Amino acid sequence: MRLFLLTTLTMCAFAANSILNRMAIDSGASDPAGFAIVRVLSGAVVLTGLVWLRSGHLPLRNRRRIAGAGSLSIYMIGFSVAYLTLDAGLGALILFGVVQITMFAVTSVTGNAPTARQIAGAAIALMGLAYVLWPSGTVQVDLTGAVLMTAAGVGWAIYSLVGRSEPDALAGTAANFVVALPVTVLALMLAAGGWDMNGAGYLLAILSGGVTSGMGYSLWYRVLPQLAPSTAAVVQLSVPIIAILGGVLLLGEVASLRLILGAALVLGGIALAVLRLKPR
User: Fold this and answer.
1) Which residue of 27, 125, 143, 269 is surrounded by the most CB atoms within 10 Å?
2) Greatest Cα pair distance in the chain
3) pLDDT digits (tens, 9 = 90+) for 240-260
4) What residue ranges carry the coiled-coil annotation (predicted)?
5) Using CA atoms, how far apart are residues 260 and 265, in angstroms rounded to an integer?
6) What's the DSSP call for residue 226?
7) Which neighbouring-strand residues pair with 30?
8) What is the 3 state secondary structure string of 85-121?
9) The pTM is what?
10) Which of 127-136, 186-195, 230-239 has the highest mean pLDDT?
């Protein structure tokens, strides 16, 4: 029960991060690249301060940082720049689809192949997500944006898989943010070509980086060792649904029949993949 609650809290943190991002960018309070830069910077500052208050040791010189910080940078850069040209819903579909495929493929190669029930559950959940997020009207996919979002999905999948071997979730996440910071900021500044943020944008980005990203990623690293890789892959499909429901509750968006049916498919697919059926 404790693992279920912690995993649910982590998914809610990820979804809250998405809501904060939408609030800042859709309102014009921030541009995507500027939001991402302040988000990574504030996450690094908050997490480093917490680690130093607790133990004073930040494991920067560790081989885990190559994969952890490197994959975090790829995710942050790809995610932020891709949304300059991709529809939000289509971008989320590409991201989470690639995360599923990558994590399932890696675990299959390493000897932990997902079962037929887990694959079926993931497919049902992904179809439900596609039903909710697929853009209406003519779909135009920007090739550069799609490639960048694919890279972001691979980066996040690797970041999640690497987290299974992280002995200290908080210190490891803080070190990943610090090491990833220079490369991420430089790449995003080159891609942005400008800076457009007001006070509300800075506030939302700091909250996103210090709380929903920093603390959410730390919590994710804490629960990952207790989750099977296939389970960790599938449960993340709930994040866009939680974010959309949060938009209904917090941003006054409309809960359509399409959303309700799609959410039921996503949750049903996750339940099929995750829950262990007991024989009678």
Assistant:
1) 125
2) 63
3) 888 888 878 877 767 778 878
4) none
5) 9
6) G
7) 197
8) CCCHHHHHHHHHHHHHHHHHHHHHHCCCCCCHHHHHH
9) 0.86
10) 230-239
